[in-house]
Amino acid sequence: MIWIGISIGISLTISMLVPFPVSLVAIIGIFILLNLYMRKRMMRKMGGGMFGSMSSMFGENSLKYYCMSCGTKHREAACPKCGSKMKRIGS
Ligand SMILES: [Zn+2]
After folding, report:
1. Ligand 1 centre from 90 Cα, in Å?
2. CA within 20 to 30 Å of 24's CA: 2, 4, 9, 55, which one?
3. Exposure string over 54-91, b if 16+ CB within 10 A, otherwise e
4. 28-76 pLDDT per residue, tens
């Protein structure tokens, strides 16, 4: 959203500084460049987000399981200490 404001500001400045036909060409050029730049940024951001969600799905780095009866941190189906299957998710 900031980029839209920036590009509008740039185009206004250009239209004030240079005569009409030149400014139009310059504005179109800047819009294309900004679009390319934004797309590159978005792609990188989206890629990072996808990777982040993938790693949280498979890696489970942020999730820790604690036994509800004895509080032991474990990742088994049942608690290795007391055998309870009740678990809570903690961070
Ligand atoms: Zn336990």
Report:
1. 15
2. 2
3. eeeeeeeeeeebebeeeebeeeeeebeeeeeeebeeee
4. 888 888 888 888 887 776 665 555 555 555 554 567 889 999 999 998 8
